[in-house]
Amino acid sequence: MTESDTTQERVEPHNPSTDVTPKSVGIGGGRLGIALFIAILAVSTASIFIRFAQSEAPSLVIAALRLTFASLALAPIALTRHRAELKALSRGEILLGLLSGLFLAAHFATWISSLEYTTVASSVVFVSTGPLWVALLSPIFLREPLTRPILIGMSLALVGGIIIGLADACTWNNGLVCPSLSQIMHGRMLFGNFLALAGAWMVAGYLIIGRKLRVKMSLMPYIFLVYSMAALCLLIVVAIAHENLFGYSWLTYVWILLLALIPQLIGHSTYNWALAYLPAAFVAVMTLGEPIGSSVLAYFILKEAPGFTVIAGGGMILVGIYFATRGNNKKSNTKDTKDTKEKT
Prior knowledge:
This protein is mostly helical.
């Protein structure tokens, strides 16, 4: 996605009673597919950069600086090329954008903190249950009915996520051996997994509001408003917690800068770009590819080797994404054929 795509993007009027497909808004399905694949790769690096930065910096500081760096990078473009659009925003749009920023801030604060208590694979799996909450809320807030392929794909991907999560807690010793409920309820891993789950709830709100606003706003003003609000919220939380933003090694700031540039500005921004053209539930299903990428990177960089259950769960996630994508493409092609017949 180039800068010209951002500045020249024109969002079509939104009809919440119909499913939005790539070709119905003039964007090729292949282009969207490539963009979402790049987004998954970019976001998958977040856990690794966070782990390296956490060797010195607290989680809240990492989250605050991540959004601050991203906002500062966007400011020159947003405040010059998109100043008129920012001024033209209604009070309701501004309030929704600020609320989206609050959800994003809470998402990063809870999820990044979870990495201090649980493994990369487990944390990413729990935070990736966001699509389930998006699926439950989209028909209510967006009036976007869930299609059967998306439901099937989401179900398979969530089962794959559960399988990966079990790999952290259970072992195979002449049968599946898992910790007792009392052990689970008193462990550090439980707290970390709960934080990651809270992150999933927050990202669901972020995606739903993004879907509602992105059909009206172009990408740059939207992400600048949301990222800036999230950064401000996190900076306030850092101040209340009496954490220090300064005094860390230059390498720690490099990891945080990479976190802002790759997972945030490339990964999250691409998801936000796609929200203008695809249902929120569909984009949410695509985010489920992150546990696979994160687990692969954790194996090569952090030496956290995935077992058979992680590989099996990852395979189910890929199958789920395939079903959801295939179903959306079929629906898009059917609509294109119908439109052609009507024109002829």
